[in-house]
Amino acid sequence: MVQSSLQIPGRLRLLNGVVLWIATGGYSGYIRIIPATFGSFVGLLLFVPLAMSPVSLQVALTCILFVLGVWTSGQAEKLMKKKDARPIVIDEIVGMWISLLFIPQQITYFLGAFILFRLLDILKPFPANQAQCLTGGLGIMIDDVVAGLYTNAILHIIYYFL
């Protein structure tokens, strides 16, 4: 059966809509004031129910979300015609999830992870500052992965000494 060419634009519109929905964290990235902070908060909220699941599932879903984030953020960047457009916050969501892996499942650690991740995402310590030179979805995602890893390491050091 031959498909009508009239059906393809509708499918592309649907796919583009799904890409933008994922890349903007359920459209939270379109909040005009501090979209990255709202994206990080969405990441925290999405992780909370996942926190009670086995760590292996948390890691697997974080890896899947990272791969999905690389693809959707790259596609969203093309759709928005702007490099690392402000509404793209899937990188903050993944960075938050990385921040929250393996830490004690307590509200104080969750809030600490949120604050520390936002600070490190803004400051972009080495090599996060270098990572943004990468193009496409990987360039969008990798600096937040680094910020998430730093956040996670700092929280583990705090936990060790407390």
Question: Could you walk me through the main structural features you see in this protein, from its secondary elements to its overall organization?
Answer:
- With 162 residues, the protein is mainly α.
- It has one domain (7-161).
- 72% of the residues lie in helices and 0% in strands.
- It has helices at 7-23, 35-50, 55-80, 90-100, 107-123, 128-131, 136-161.
- The chain is globular and about 55 Å long.
Cα-to-Cα separation, first versus last residue: 67 Å
Radius of gyration: 17 Å
Order of helices and strands: HHHHHHH
Strand content: under 5%
Quantity of strands, as a count: 0
Total domains, how many? 1
Please summarize what this structure is.
The chain has 162 residues and is mainly α. Helix content is 72%, strand content 0%. The protein has one domain.
Supply database-style keywords.
single chain; 162 residues; mainly alpha; 72% helix; disordered N terminus
Fold blueprint:
Blueprint: H1 7-23, H2 35-50, H3 55-80, H4 90-100, H5 107-123, H6 128-131, H7 136-161
